[in-house]
Amino acid sequence: MLKILKYSFYDLMRSRWSYVYFLFYLALGFVLLFLNNDLSKAVITLMNVIIVLVPLIGTIFGVMYFYNSKEFTELLLAQPLRRSTIFLGQYFGVAGSLTLSLFLGLGVPFILYGLFRSDAIFNFTLLLVTGAFLTFIFTALAFNIALSNENRIKGFGYAVLLWLFLAVIYDGLFLLSLIVFEEYPLDTFSLAATMFNPIDLSRTLILLKLDISALLGYTGAVFKKFFGTDFGLLVSLVVLLFWTILPIWRLAIKSKRKDF
Amino acid sequence: MNHILLHSKLLFFLILIGGSQFLMGRTITICSTCEVSSIKKGIALAVEYDTLLIKKGTYKEYNIVIDKPLTLLGEGYPVIDGEEKGEIITIVSDNVTVDGLFIINVGTSYTTDYAAIRVVKSENFLIQHVVLERLFFGIYLEKSNNGKVYHNKIIGDAVDEYNSGNGIQLWYSHHVQVDRNIVQGTRDGIYLEFSDNVTINNNRSSDNIRYGLHFMFSNDDIYTNNTFENNGAGVAVMFSKNIRMQNNTFRKNWGTASFGMLLKEINDAEISGNTFEENTIGINIEGSNRINYIGNDFINNGWAVKVRGACYTNIFKNNNFLYNSFDISYNSKVNDNIFEQNYWSSYTGYDLDKNGIGDVPYRPVKLFSYIVNRTPETIVLLRSLFMDIIDFSEKVSPVFTPDNLMDPNPLMRKVK
């Protein structure tokens, strides 16, 4: 698996898209810090960008890579290699290189602007961890979609739809259901509903840092416990971990059964 | 005739003696090994305008009644331990000064408001450099005017509202100065009831269970340069007129019923130059009229200003609204309240004629804030892309939010 991971990784490192992705974050980081020298403010802006952009790029890139390297995959399948090794190797190669681009692209400007001397380091770490989780989750979901759909157009369509659903439509439905059932106690439901969407989950992590004063305005014991203590942070991270493991596990199972 | 003359001469002589005593005033030293070893004894021995110099040590006394104009001066913070038996010092005379004492263990009662220092129907008192700990009520001014409470430190350990008292309480006391005190861990840090023309400056009131500062039926008061931090419910100003609130800082009042400042039935007030930072609600306004909000900073609050209704002729001018989750929340009509020339950090308009004023009006009420008012649980959707999209569409054509609620001349740069 490591060998395949290495091949995929190096292959991607040499590809143009990784550089574009890396340069994009580099530019974003520098521009933000240039316009507004305050590190913690820049981290907050980036958090907003990252929860939308990282999933989109992870999805598109994952699907694209899978379809593009199909011939190589088929070649590998002819070798005496375990299937899960091949697919997981490729998956970790893609997700790893994307995460690396993210880390380097944002890390370089922030370190140059004195990250280690500021108190924003915890928030920045949280930002990178959230970004990494989202990359791994959405690349895994994209691989699952690509594996289940032979038709490229269909695969792309589903992938974009998945992103649109989780980033926008889910929140719309969520809001609608909250308003329709407003007569009922909803604080447990609303927290549970955030758990079922990795983008919302990452957003919650940001809210915990940013809007804590507004969140504590709502009466509700569950809310208070979740947002008032470190409990919320812990639960969100654990659920994000689940969200990563689950699609990877399905990828491993599915790839074993699939007929090529 | 001769008799009368003699009498008047005697009277004159007595007045002279009295006057000279006022000028000189004996000093009685009190310490555990001295001739006078207790404060009560010292007061009994003293005549008007004497000074009681209390040396360092512990004095286990309570119910000390000061019934003549005296100065109680502590040296090296002598401890007066009430052993939780009741009130400690009661002042019932004019012109009393209490300086430099360390008073602990005031008795707690459910029927009587025991205080560390109580001033009853007296004038020209001065209470300064006093430290109070383990108290019920701290300094209690009752129908006493023209006094000064200066540079005291009151540190309570209150846990529940029902069995704790206020740090500094004024009841029917006018023309009092409360300056440079530190109050923490009491029920209300500073509480005013029926007290007019009171000046409250440079105090620091924090970690109190209920309000940092609480006004009730008190008019024409001024409070400036105070800091109120992490109080249970912030600062409450209720049923009062003509109050000036300037250059105060309200910070970190978090909770479901927590406010930086709560205004209820306040008329003709001025609120200027204050900083509201990281409160759940910066200012909560209810039934308040003719108030000028000028040059305040609202930074990182959940709601900067929440207007609850029955508010008329309030003017918000030259304020900075910076990075609040919601700038304004409104649940009634705009009425004749005005938002004019404020700086809003979330303003996205432009200024083509470069006069420092944005060319597009700013609407501070977002659709999302309307939704959260209706269904509070939706707060978890804060900052989601979906919300940004519907907020944007509402901004373009307002349907749910009052369309005349806007700042027609938003500033492009922060007010300094």
UniProtKB/TrEMBL annotation, chain A:
Entry keyword annotation includes Transmembrane helix: yes
Looking at the record's lineage, which domain of life comes first?
A: Bacteria
Q: Where are the transmembrane segments?
A: 20-36, 42-67, 88-115, 121-143, 155-181, 231-253
Has the keyword Membrane been applied to this entry?
yes
| Keywords on record | Membrane, Transmembrane, Transmembrane helix
Identification of the protein by name: ABC transporter permease
Q: What organism is the protein native to?
A: Ulvibacterium marinum
From TrEMBL, chain B:
This protein's name: Nitrous oxide reductase family maturation protein NosD
Sorted alphabetically, the keyword list is: Repeat, Ubl conjugation pathway
UniProt xrefs under Gene3D superfamilies: Single-stranded right-handed beta-helix, Pectin lyase-like (2.160.20.10)
> Which pathway is recorded for this entry?
Protein modification; protein ubiquitination
**SUPFAM superfamilies from the UniProt entry:** Pectin lyase-like (SSF51126)
Note the SMART domains from the entry.
CASH (SM00722), PbH1 (SM00710)
Q: Where is the Carbohydrate-binding/sugar hydrolysis domain?
A: 54-193
Q: Does the keyword Cell wall biogenesis/degradation apply?
A: no
Lineage of source species? Bacteria, Pseudomonadati, Bacteroidota, Flavobacteriia, Flavobacteriales
Gene name tied to this protein: nosD
Signal peptide residue numbers: none
Q: Name one Pfam family in it.
A: NosD
